[in-house]
Design a protein that fits this description.
about 200 residues, alpha+beta
Length: about 200
């Protein structure tokens, strides 16, 4: 390096100061791999931000026949309420169409749909799942998985295959648990407080 080049270098570096020992330590620490505890906390935070539908199995399901009636009633549901559901007598407040979806896609959509229903106080809904007529084996996979998944939601009080005008054996009526807010509105409408009539 010539004297001119050295002078030029010194001029350029005149206001540059060396890193302190503390700053060097910080830089070296950031270059290291994060601790297992930090990695776990990061993964937990990321999992909390994503939809958790892992409790809905997709590995194996007992297939149902295309025309089979699927039905479920949780303990405590009155027979009259269930009969009305079977007949399609409840107003359908929300619908979900699963036609053309894979099992994984359907699992995700069913999870989101039920949680949206709960958020908006939907009590009666319809899920169209089809009869599996488009797949080569003619096995209604989505229908079979839906019959397995719905009882896993504690908020699903009952379901039953729909009437012909709502899709018949290719769709299912679903009755959801009433929210505390909806229960309070009913009590208020009926003039009840703590379950006793107000005079």
């Amino acid at each position: 390096m010539s004297d001119d080049e050295l002078d030029l270098f010194k001029k350029e570096m005149a206001d540059v100061r060396p890193l302190s020992a503390r700053e060097e330590r910080v830089l070296r620490r950031e270059d290291k791999m994060p601790s297992p505890g930090l990695l776990y906390r990061r993964e937990s935070a990321q999992r909390a931000q994503t939809v958790d539908e892992s409790h809905l199995p997709t590995a194996f399901v007992e297939p149902v026949r295309p025309e089979a009636i699927i039905s479920y009633r949780r303990d405590g549901i009155q027979h009259g309420v269930f009969r009305r559901l079977q007949k399609g007598a409840y107003e359908i407040e929300a619908t979900l169409d699963l036609h053309g979806l894979t099992v994984e896609q359907a699992r995700h959509e069913v999870y989101l749909f039920i949680h949206d229903c709960l958020r908006y106080d939907v009590r009666s809904a319809l899920i169209a799942h089809g009869k599996g007529q488009r797949n080569k084996d003619q096995i209604p996979l989505l229908k079979s998985f839906l019959a397995r998944w719905l009882p896993l939601f504690p908020e699903v009080m009952a379901f039953h295959s729909a009437q012909k005008w709502h899709g018949g054996a290719g769709a299912v009526y679903m009755l959801l648990r009433k929210s505390e807010k909806a229960k309070a509105k009913t009590r208020e409408r009926l003039g009840l407080s703590s379950g006793k009539p107000e005079f």
